[in-house]
Prior knowledge:
Blueprint lengths: L4 H11 L9 E5 L3 E2 L6 E8 L6 E4 L5 E7 L5 E7 L6 E9 L2 E10 L17 E4 L35 H6 L1 H7 L3 E4 L3 E2 L14 E5 L6 H13 L3 E6 L9 H4 L30 H9 L14 H18 L3 E4 L7 H14 L4 E4 L6 H5 L17 E3 L1 H10 L11 H8 L11 E4 L18 H13 L3 E5 L14 H4 L22 H17 L3 H5 L1 E8 L2 E8 L2 E8 L5 E3 L12 E4 L4 E4 L4 E3 L4 E5 L1
Parallel strand pairs: 2-8, 9-10, 9-18, 10-13, 13-14, 14-15, 15-16, 16-17, 17-18
Antiparallel strand pairs: 1-3, 3-6, 4-7, 5-6, 7-8, 11-12, 19-20, 20-21, 21-26, 22-25, 23-24, 23-26
Amino acid sequence: xxxxxxxxxxxxxxxxxxxxxxxxxxxxxxxxxxxxxxxxxxxxxxxxxxxxxxxxxxxxxxxxxxxxxxxxxxxxxxxxxxxxxxxxxxxxxxxxxxxxxxxxxxxxxxxxxxxxxxxxxxxxxxxxxxxxxxxxxxxxxxxxxxxxxxxxxxxxxxxxxxxxxxxxxxxxxxxxxxxxxxxxxxxxxxxxxxxxxxxxxxxxxxxxxxxxxxxxxxxxxxxxxxxxxxxxxxxxxxxxxxxxxxxxxxxxxxxxxxxxxxxxxxxxxxxxxxxxxxxxxxxxxxxxxxxxxxxxxxxxxxxxxxxxxxxxxxxxxxxxxxxxxxxxxxxxxxxxxxxxxxxxxxxxxxxxxxxxxxxxxxxxxxxxxxxxxxxxxxxxxxxxxxxxxxxxxxxxxxxxxxxxxxxxxxxxxxxxxxxxxxxxxxxxxxxxxxxxxxxxxxxxxxxxxxxxxxxxxxxxxxxxxxxxxxxxxxxxxxxxxxxxxxxxxxxxxxxxxxxxxxxxxxxxxxxxxxxxxxxxxxxxxxxxxxxxxxxxxxxxxxxxxxxxxxxxxxxxxxxxxxxxxxxxxxxxxxxxxxxxxxxxxxxxxxxxxxxxxxxxxxxxxxxxxxxxxxxx
Length: 616
């Protein structure tokens, strides 16, 4: 993996060919592949100066070279091979131009015996979202890579690189395991060799290479292996809608139709509701989907079959190579619907339990539901996207715990009212639910607001006991606060203690404030209780309309159940339990939050913003 294919071509020049001159192959994508994949077709993209006039042959007897596709740009060749009969091997791709020839070694690896049996993330998991550049710096020697375009670190600049890396995450896996999360979702780790703003990872310049300032491909594999050894899954962030403007595929385009608007910057409207809007104009749909996210992020044309295959293979390559458990797909509705559907199906055909969550940032559950697999609203089309992001619920949660709940509106009634509409979803259990993420204001906008710890506790109880797959943004457990109005860079602050000379190390209990420790311990208790809990992971949801500000709901699986009672007011409330008998099967129950037994033979009293999580 560490050898570049330019070097391999040079080795081929001196060791495998008798000519005195040969083309230099700058890129080979993918860098290798595997035998016995369910889909036997392999696309290999070759990039080098003026290679398109070459006659191409391969040395393997059990691999069929089906097609050699030339592009407008003479620096590209796209090969399609049939690996149906292929065994693991290294063979030679030979490019012949007159008396000159270039030989490129290519390896077909042996798959692991259980490679298809990847365990995807599901509603039994809790995802912990990490921006690698901002979490922890485990290897300061890779902070600056001189030959890369953004070759500096400045922790005082919220939009500069800060030096966090894969080693920093690996060093703190015990912290995450102890907290109780079962999966880590990493913002993009692939190369972002951009002049500025490369810290966030969303402008990929090489789909097959980990950004060297984060580590190496091998280090990522090691991180995944270590996470698995501690019972945690790994979710990788990917972007098919756009790449970085410094990506070789854009700087030296194979053809104009690799990018929308023929590679000319045309701004998207961001109004992706037009995709499913039955009244939308053709112009609105096109500008939303084909328009560019920003000028520095050219919009890929997934309708080009070569682009589609390149992107599909890049994701399958990382699953097979690193053993990841899931993918979060950025800006999912901005890409071509049919190609993204094809991609989701291609991945799950190879890995049946693998899960993909699409970023579906839309303002209503109806619009979000359109993007979920088997949606009745999208029929006869099908996205094949198992999990979508429940942004509308995030909006409701960020208001609900600040307001007084009445029988008809406000507070917890917002949550009840929203969940009554779950019939629009094909599968409510496969919704990603969250309080915040790297693109939104944090759940607490400022430090002063964190003094209201009841808000945090109620939000966590609801998040971790409602339907769906919970996601927590790094630092929530220590009450990190930020307002998007002050810029995205501040939403992605460094985790205190992730750098050697930080004044406080909040990875350690002794260095956290009493309030931070209260928040951490509360989350830890809930996460550890939730881990492996089938009632929460699989149980159906039944709820009651709020009465006197009290919201009651049940999760039930088999003969076990959990009933949650939440006081959405600031006043102490006495609850007549008679209306709730169907979710109170015994006369006493264990309260998860206090570890006490609760007598259910009489009325209950809940203090303002109080809660019970009863196990039956």
